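user: Here is a favour to ask of a fellow structure person. I have my own habits and do not want them to colour yours. Could you put it straight underneath, so I can go through it closely?

assistant:
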Amino acid sequence: MGSKGLLERLRNGESVLIAEGYVMEIERRGYLQAGGFVPEVVLEHPEIVEGLHREFIHAGTDVVEALMYFGHREKLRAIGRESDLEKLNRMALKIARDLANETDTLMAGGLCCTTIYDPDNTETHDKIRSIFKEQVEWAVTEGADYMIAETIHSYGEAQLALEAIQQHGKGIPAVITLTCLIPDETTDEVPIAEACRRLEEGGAAVVGLNCGRGPKTMLPALREIRKACKGPIAALPVTYRTKEHCRTWHSLNDPDTGRNVFPKNLACVMSSRDDIREFAEEAKAIGVNYIGLCCGNAPFYFRELAEVYGRKPEASKYSPNLSLNVILEGTNPSLRKLREYAFGTTESND
């Protein structure tokens, strides 16, 4: 366990930084299939999972979250690998626990949307309780410091996740992050800020948002959550340039072709490093003290966020120093022609 636990850090007024977004980054690297996004990589290439954990630790994360996202029974059943369910989850947890011990970081287990929740069908509620129960129990036995329930679209399913952590987690804290889509409400029509307030009052240690929206379109909802909630709030946007007319990454279109880009062609709408830095500055001003990045995250983005929150991770040794760039620095007259060709401009002889 990290030298200080989640609750101790937050009660001391510290911020907790967490890197998420593993499935998208591993898919970009060619080790996970887009579509179902099931983390078979845990079993087939555990070294890739461990390596990405190490990269995010290098970039400043305080938490190693086990790669359990979409590793639940319903998703494994859909690809014919239900028999590998416990092995996958326990291996993901063991990889994360070993690295957390080595690096004095926190380790979190994870729940996520099951894709089967129906507010009017109590049979789905019972199935979800069973799905969450086994994952929480595995996380506890493998030494998780706390439990995350993330990318939950409905208040009802978030309640089920919180209840599972409270009933089977043997006292470990619960972080519950909802996904805010185009209306500022859950899919069972509870206003997002109100849903967060209820979950906080129900005993969640941290509440807030992850996934769904990019930096610019997540900020307004965060402001409302900060007003509604008394305790720590979370923010983990996707790293894509969502705007008011396309608030979610699902709704983004290619600026050249007009075609929808989700989920295969998102590269043309990625955030810049400055976008991430500016988001982190605004989130910090709002009072977000559990902060990270979700789908699209990469270590160079995460370093920007960590530096805004006052950290100097090992990766900061390699933060850009553009004064060393011969094209941008501009004082060497022998490179004038190169700069003119690079930027398509003619420099003055003065």
